[in-house]
User: Fold this.
Amino acid sequence: MSLNNVLDINDENFRLSNFSERYESNVRTYSRDFPAVFHRAKGSVLYSDTNKPYLDFFSGAGALNYGHNNPVLKEALINYISKDGISHGLDLFTSAKERFINSFVQYILCPRNLDYKLQFTGPTGTNAVEAAVKIARKYTGRKNVISFTNAFHGMSLGSLSLTANPKKRKGAGVALHDSIFMPYDGYLGPDIDTSLVLKAMLQDGSGLDKPAAIIVETIQGEGGVNTASRSWLRKIYQIAKELDILFIVDDIQAGCGRSGTFFSFEEYQIKPDIVVLSKSLSGYGLPMSLLLLSPEIDIWEPGEHNGTFRGNNHAFITAETAISNFWATKMFSEDLSNKIGFFDNVLDELQREHPEIGLRGRGLFRGISFNEENIAGKVSAEAFNHGLIVETSGVSGHILKLLPALTISQRELQDGISIISDVLKKRGK
Assistant:
């Protein structure tokens, strides 16, 4: 059946969403929250097919830290494609992969005194989490993995077992095994140090079998932009070290500069046994994920874990370009630090104007909390009507999650917060 027989695509009233609304699965979400047909994008602005501009505080759920169609990355990708560069390479040696590994080791790992093996998994974050848990179990010979309340680690069965959101867990349709949830920092209130709960439960007689690993997000994105304090995370890390439990940091959303430094755990002065990266690793929104393993943990047999699309060479090109052009010098990091300071001030001013809100997160990974459920969703919807794309998070959707690109201008940061402020003022009337 021809598409022309379904809808007249030459009709001036035709919109691409007619196809999506009629034929795409009910599982879609973001198109419901942001009901427009987007046609092009540049920097921190998306344009609909009617050419309406939308300021982007969403950044592809954190996959576009350098904005849309970053010109430096685009030029490198176009140049590579024009020369018939390898696009699909499985785990073959390619010049694109060699360049990425060299830059990643030289500009990311070495300056931070980190020694890791690199494992390229399937292209999504959940693929990398699955690999991390799998190797942790193989290395230790243990099954259980400890995760935390409000955690989100992915939607495939292994990573979903470590995800706390009940609605997402229900979608599995089967029992989710071999995971244990412990209270995240602040989950039991500001006066209870939940690291002590974990330490007590890991002692003999608790009934809790010694786990293979502890996996943690330094900033819980989907869970509500909850942020681990330095003291709490270091205590969790020390518990893992003392008891010979592997320590995994899921840096899929908080990493690649989102928190202010390339890795979100840098200021905590810890060295995870395993680090999971994805989302903005490619720098251009291209699918790519990566596992960083302490060398002694890399006990895989050849082919024991693989994936057809673990060699996305286009992603290697843009990822390497992002590293060598942005992270290789201090200029980008210094500019990012200044931008974060400006954003902090703008958000503080917003809170002074609207004392009913709370602020969460750090870097350019921030949350605005509301005391009532559904308010964040209404603010997001109204902000969209005024040309701002900003999503919600948290189990009850009570957090407005701000993920502007690291390359956004201070003027655009101010404009986005001004839209949110105007929406809050109108709601208060």
